[in-house]
Design goal:
alpha+beta, three-stranded antiparallel sheet, 9 helices
Length: 210
C-alpha cells in the first residue's frame, strides 16, 4: 500500500450558474426515453433563462439535475482514468493517490474532460495536498484516525447560540425554537469526534433555564 497519501480536491467554478443546457439535455436523453419526460425537463431547464447556461440554485429539480450532470465525470474518473479512491458530493470531488505527480497527471485529464465535454471550468481552489493535513469535505475535516467539524461551522454556531441564548433569556424566542436549533447542530456534531463535549456545552448554554 502507499507510504504517503495525497489528495486531489476538485471544485467546479460557479457550478449551478455554468451548467450548459444543451449538454445537460443530451445527457438526459441517454437516460430517459420518454418524450414527455424530456420535454418537461427541457421546459424546466430553459424557462426564464435565455443564456443557454445555468439552473436555479435551491430548486429541488436543480439538485437532481446538477448531480446527474457530473455523473459523466464520475464515469470518466472511474472507468477511463481508473482512479480507485474517488468520491463526489455535488461539485466537490476528492481523489486519492500515492504521489503529487500521479494526481497532477490525473488533474490534467480531468480538467480537459470537464472543459471540453461538460463545458465547465475548475475553481482555482482545486489543489493537491497531503492527506495528513486533513481533508475538508462535506462539512467535516477528516483524517485517517478521526473526524472534526469545520472550524468556520463551529465559530458560526457559537455566534448563533449566543444570540439565541440572549433572545431566549429575554423571552423573544420560545423553548421549541431554541431546541430545534440546538438539536440540528447536535445532529451535525454526532458524526464527528466533537459530539460529546458539544452536547454538554449546548445543553448548558441553551437549556439551563429548565
Amino acid at each position: 500500500m502507499w507510504g504517503r497519501v495525497y489528495v486531489l480536491q476538485v471544485d467546479i467554478s460557479k457550478y449551478f450558474q455554468s451548467i450548459h443546457h444543451q449538454t445537460l439535455l443530451d445527457i438526459l436523453k441517454r437516460t430517459f426515453r420518454e418524450k414527455e419526460v424530456l420535454s418537461l425537463y427541457k421546459t424546466i431547464i430553459e424557462t426564464n433563462n435565455a443564456t443557454g447556461r445555468g439552473i436555479p440554485i435551491g430548486a429541488l429539480t436543480s439538485q437532481t439535475l446538477a448531480n446527474h450532470y457530473l455523473s459523466e465525470a464520475d464515469h470518466f474518473v472511474k472507468e477511463k482514468l481508473m482512479v480507485k479512491f474517488y468520491v463526489r458530493y455535488m461539485d466537490d470531488m476528492i481523489l486519492l493517490g500515492p504521489s503529487k505527480h500521479y494526481l497532477k497527471d490525473i488533474l490534467v485529464e480531468l480538467k480537459r474532460f470537464v472543459e471540453t465535454k461538460l463545458k465547465l471550468d475548475l475553481n482555482p481552489k482545486t489543489r493537491i495536498y497531503p492527506a495528513s493535513q486533513g481533508v475538508d469535505f462535506a462539512g467535516y475535516r477528516t483524517w485517517r484516525t478521526h473526524i472534526l467539524p469545520r472550524k468556520r461551522n463551529v465559530k458560526a454556531a457559537k455566534r448563533r447560540f449566543k444570540s439565541i441564548s440572549r433572545r431566549y433569556a429575554k423571552g423573544e424566542v420560545g423553548l421549541e425554537y431554541a431546541k430545534s436549533r440546538v438539536f440540528s447542530f447536535i445532529g451535525y456534531m454526532q458524526h464527528c469526534n466533537g459530539y460529546c463535549s458539544t452536547v454538554s456545552a449546548l445543553k448548558y448554554l441553551i437549556l439551563r433555564r429548565n
